[in-house]
Each structure stands twice: as C-alpha cells, then as structure tokens.
Write a structure and sequence with these properties.
It is a single chain. It is built from eight helices and eight strands, in the order E-H-E-H-E-H-E-H-E-H-E-H-E-E-H-H. It is of the alpha/beta class. It has an eight-stranded parallel barrel with strand order 1-2-3-4-5-6-7-8, surrounded by six helices. Helix 1 (19-32) packs parallel to helix 2 and helix 2 (46-62) crosses helix 3.
C-alpha cells in the first residue's frame, strides 16, 4: 500500500466551472496544502473522465499528492491514479483489490459500524464517514451523528475521515473524536481564494488535533 495522508482530503466538484478555472482552483488547493485529492465526476463520459483525470494527475504529481478517482475502478486503472474511492453501491472492495493490486489506495464510504467493519475486512485503506452536515454537492446525503463517527473510529484500525458540509467555522463538532482528517468539497471549490481556504482549513484541523 502506498503512503498517504488524509489530514485535509480535498474532493473536487467541477460544476459551473470551465475546465481552465477548475484546474486553476484545483492547483490552488494543492498549493494551500491539500494532502489527498479525489476527482469526483458523476456526469462525465468515460473518455471525458479519463481526459480530465490525466490533467489533474499532472497537477497532483507536481505537488506529490496522491490522486484518488471516485467510483470508477476502470478510470483509475486506465490513467494510472494512485487510488480509487468506492461507495456502497460501487464495486465491492475485495473485487477492486483483486483488480488493482496491493499498491493501490482504496477508500470506502461508510455510515455505520457494520459497513465500516465490512469495508476494513475487505481491504479498504481508509474510510470516509458522513455526512456530518447537510451538503450542497450533487450526491445523496444521509446525516451521520458524531457518536456514530466516534464508534466507527473505535471499531477499525484504519484512518477514518469526516465528510459532509464541513468548513473552518463548524469543525469544532469533531473535537475529541479520533478521526484522521476531514474531507472538504464546497469550502474549497466555492471559496474566493481556494489556496487560502485550504490553508485555513488545514490550520483549523491542526488546532483541533485532528492530525
């Protein structure tokens, strides 16, 4: 398994941006200290997804940040990403591991302790747990309590990361929970200054001793 750091896990959303502006914002987040980057595209064709992933990969390699592809094992494998993130309706983790091998990072979305245990047992390297708050992204969200988040952290020995509507002003709710980091979409993508927003989020995470 590759080494990776989920302290500030940046998940992209290209909605409403030209490709040029999307790539600019993505690079600004990398400059600001994003430690892991997930490319999430729900509506692109396979060719469009691979094309954009290759461009984003050029940026992530420049900053030595692993690139994680959302949902699509085929896209991750085709363009040489470092990892893939799988939801509950995506390819089973143990199947993906057989295809991708031991060096690929495989993350999983979980919302309950049983789901977390299953993902770990099947070979997941880290978990994304949430949504902690309602989100504005185009994914279906079910609110996960901080109590459940804490229970998941206690149940598995792999990194657990909180996701869902998090920003620098509301992550105090996570204090005292042994998560490995936070996953952020809108707080960076929609920021006037993505680089500054990323740096501030990372600093807040450190203040709360999330990393």
């Amino acid at each position: 398994m590759r080494n990776f750091d989920t302290t500030l896990y940046f998940i992209t959303d290209s909605t409403g941006f030209s490709e040029e502006e999307f790539l600019r914002r993505t690079e600004e987040a990398l400059k600001g200290g994003a430690s892991l980057l997930q490319l999430r595209e729900k509506d692109k064709t396979t060719r469009e997804y691979i094309s954009l992933a290759e461009k984003v990969h050029t940026l992530t390699k420049k900053y030595n940040v692993p690139l994680i592809i959302d949902d699509r094992v085929d896209v991750a494998l085709a363009m040489g990403a470092e990892g893939v993130h799988l939801g509950q309706s995506d390819m089973p983790i143990n199947t993906a591991r057989k295809i991708l091998g031991d060096d690929f990072i495989i993350g999983a979305t979980t919302k309950t302790v049983p789901q977390a245990l299953e993902a770990y047992q099947q070979g997941a390297d880290y978990l994304g747990v949430g949504a902690i708050y309602p989100t504005t992204t185009k994914v279906k969200t079910v609110i996960t309590s901080t109590e459940t988040l804490g229970n998941i952290c206690s149940a598995v020995p792999i990194p657990v990361n909180a996701i869902g509507g998090l920003n620098k002003d509301n992550i105090d709710i996570l204090k005292g929970i042994t998560i490995a980091g936070i996953c952020v979409v809108s707080a960076i993508m929609k920021a006037d200054d993505p680089k500054q927003a990323t740096a501030e989020l990372k600093a807040r995470a450190k203040e709360l001793e999330l990393c």
